[in-house]
Design brief:
single chain, 369 residues, alpha/beta, Isopropylmalate Dehydrogenase, 2 domains, two-stranded antiparallel ribbon, 41% helix, globular, binds 3-isopropylmalic acid, binds manganese (II) ion
Length: 369
């Protein structure tokens, strides 16, 4: 059996709590003979800053480059509100994304039947929802230069961020979206703001060109990003794959997450290009939710997004699709059995904490084994 090199970066806040449940599931998978892992662990975010004054150490970056896949919990919290901008917790995550060139962020939003009632939308609008946001992750306004605050002569200040995209960046993310659409319901919505942004004009043009040249079998629709946000809460089931830039993808994926009942439900995969000779592709998996300082340390965080991120790692990095299916079925089974963390609780369900949810998922895995 191949041994998979996995780097765990629990990070801050509830990141460490939800990662603890992933460790138990990894141990279960090994014990059940499903897979074998060489697991390393390191610090990122505020935890790394407290230890070495950087949001991620060079040592941890080396480990990240050497790993077959990385699982990250969450970064950030009020404790680090006043650290230098370059060392803020988020800088660790952004460096990982940028240096490892993880340009394709896959954020699937799936509404489990048992949770349709937990959404803030009417159950019939979200029941059976199965969509995928493909977010560009290494370009756009997150990384564009110049990025600074200037002092002006009249005592005013000027803040500058730069939204910039080159055509190759749009081409490669469009391909990821079209390829994935072919494995799903064959429809892509491309979201940008070509009515006010030059990057939007280019985005729309390049996506159309890639479509015309290679993917005419896929249905392509262009939506303005604001209208796309509106459609997401009006009729979310019209969507199959949404492809969009870094900032719009950040926002639209939070909206999509809430449709499924809670931010605590959404996993994500951030993938690099497939390497030509090895066929390998760098990858980092993380829940869409953040460090949630308001509930951190209480043992009540929902670990499902983190566990779902492990399932994505098994599927996309380790070729263990069957094991991924088992974990996803165990999550669905846990919800169907009525177990809920506080964020998705409703009358008549059994409210459990983080480790209680881990117990329930492992019990489902046992039952199916
Ligand atoms: C996300 C997060 C990050 C982002 C933060 C923590 C930098 O919100 O992954 O969606 O903005 O990309
Ligand atoms: Mn976000």
């Amino acid at each position: 059996m191949a041994t998979h090199k996995l780097l765990l970066l629990p990070g801050d806040g509830i990141g460490t709590e939800v990662m603890a449940e992933v460790k138990r599931i990894l141990a279960w998978l090994e014990k059940a003979g499903v897979a074998s892992f060489a697991v390393e662990e390191d610090l990122v975010g505020g935890a790394a800053y407290d230890s070495c004054g950087l949001a991620i150490s060079e040592e941890a970056m080396k480990r990240a480059f050497a790993a077959d896949a990385i699982l990250l919990g969450a970064v950030g919290g009020p404790k680090w509100a006043n650290v230098p901008y370059e060392s803020r917790p988020e800088a660790g995550l952004l460096r990982l994304r940028k240096d490892l060139e993880l340009f394709a962020n896959l954020r699937p939003a799936l509404c489990y039947p048992a949770l349709a009632g937990a959404s803030s939308l009417k159950p019939e609008l979200v029941e059976g929802l199965d969509m995928l946001i493909v977010r560009e992750l290494t370009g756009g306004v997150y990384f564009g230069e110049p990025k600074l605050i200037q002092d002006l002569a009249d005592g005013q200040k000027r803040g500058i961020d730069t939204q910039v995209y080159e055509s190759y960046e749009i081409e490669r993310i469009a391909r990821v979206a079209f390829e994935l659409a072919r494995t799903r319901r064959n429809k892509v919505v491309s979201a940008e703001k070509h009515n006010v942004m030059k990057t939007g004009v280019l985005w729309k043009q390049v996506v159309s060109e890639v479509h015309g040249a290679e993917y005419e079998d896929v249905v392509l629709e262009h939506q303005l990003a604001d209208s796309c946000a509106m459609q997401l809460v009006r009729a979310p089931k019209q969507f199959d794959v949404i492809v969009t830039d870094n900032l719009f993808g950040d926002i639209l994926s939070d909206v999509a997450a809430m449709l499924t009942g809670s931010l605590g439900m959404l996993p994500s995969a951030s993938l690099g290009a497939v390497e030509e000779i090895s066929g390998r592709r760098r990858a980092l998996y993380e829940p869409v939710h953040g460090a949630a300082p308001d509930i951190a340390g209480k043992g009540v965080a929902n670990p499902i997004a983190m566990i779902g991120s492990l399932a994505m790692a098994l599927r996309y990095s380790f070729g263990l699709a069957e094991a991924a299916d088992r974990i996803e079925a165990a999550i669905a089974g846990t919800l169907a059995a009525g177990f809920r963390t506080g964020d998705i609780a409703s009358p008549g369900t059994t409210v459990v904490g983080t480790s209680g949810m881990g117990d329930a998922v492992i019990a489902q895995l046992e039952k199916a084994a």
